[in-house]
Amino acid sequence: MAHAIPQYIVDMMADRVWRMEHYIWHEVRNLWLFFDQPTRDALARMGWEPPRPARQPGANGPVAIIDNDSGEDFLYMHHEMIKMVNARLNNDPTYPSVQAWSRLPSPGDTDYPVPPVWDTGNADLNEYLNEVKSDNALATRFRPWEAQFGDSRYLKTVTLGELGARIEFSIHNQMHMRWCANPTPGIRPDADDTNLEGIDRKWDSPAYDWLGDTYSSHVNSVFWNLHGWVDARIVDWAQAHDLQEPIRWRGTWIGKMPGHSMPRRMETIAIAADRRSADYLEELTRAVVLIAKQGHSCHFYDNVEFPTATR
User: Fold this and answer.
1) Which of 66, 181, 219, 221 could bond 165 through an S-S bridge, CB–CB 3.0 to 4.6 Å?
2) Cα end-to-end span (Å), the chain
3) Domains of the chain: which residue ranges?
4) How far apart are CA 256 and CA 44, in angstroms?
5) Strand partners of residue 55
6) Residue 269, exposed/middle/buried by CB under 10 A (0-12, 13-18, 19+)?
7) 278-293 and 16-31 helices cross at what angle (nearest 10)?
């Protein structure tokens, strides 16, 4: 029987500061090249300029950027989140460390069943969920990706940055949606620039842990299972490249998580008083409102294309 991540980790991740930082990190990486220059300048002054944007506009929608090491940022940031949570767990006898999936759960798995589809009120999202939660999607999409991203022959052909980008915008995003369930109290609407708080505080309840939303996904216990699986692909890549020493990361941007003017390595940090300060929370709120004013949002269910292969 699968064990859920302890409640004290859930409560820590549900903190409004953690939610906003995780949300902003994903938003600015994915939408930076969609923002106007004044918005970029304002976010940069707050320390939220991503050195490597993850997506760019394309003729049919967003296109993943696979050659600028933004994929390393994706892998590194979540790698650091796992280390931080493991440090906080400190070998808790009930849940010693993040429990990664060694293999994606099969249909009918009693520990990690695929939650049923529900009427989200959005016909396009309903259609997407029906497809991504199907047994056919597992057989024809998830299993081939799972095999490819663990195959040393493939891993030898890609940089860590390209691997991270391809994982993020394929199997990772769709795993979030495959295992998401009908959330309480519903799906959070995109941030509203007319709301001075940016995001209503009712979405800060630990009960709101929807895997389909960057404001809440990390509160869900399954987030850590699937990101543990993603993290193991870093090891596979290093082994495929016969690395005998620690990876020399080229993408290590974690934004201001887990708080400004604090050590940058997450695993050394608990939620501290300055992260709860009114000034810092107000700054995060301004960042959320700035993003909302641009009229763009990123979602795990966005249709993100990959550039045409050049090799």
Assistant:
1) 66
2) 45
3) 7-293
4) 11
5) 64
6) middle
7) 30
The residue with tokens 């941030």 is 191
Distance set, CA 225 to CA 2, 42, 245 (Å): 10, 36, 26
Given a cut of 60, whether residue 262 has pLDDT beyond it is no
How confident is the model over 31-84, as pLDDT tens digits?
A: 999 999 999 999 999 999 999 999 999 999 999 999 999 999 999 999 999 999
What are the tens digits of pLDDT across the range 197-214? Answer: 899 999 999 999 999 999
Q: What confidence category does residue 11 fall into, taking pLDDT thresholds of 50, 70 and 90?
A: very high
Average pLDDT over residues 260-273: 45
Distances (CA, A) of 59 to 38, 176, 304, 306: 24, 26, 11, 12
Question: Mind listing the pLDDT tens digit for each residue in 144-173?
Answer: 999 999 999 999 999 999 999 999 999 999
Region for residue 302 given its phi and psi (left: phi exceeds 0; alpha: psi -120 to 50; beta: otherwise): beta
What is the pLDDT, as a whole number, of residue 260? Answer: 46
Which pLDDT does position 275 carry in this prediction? 52
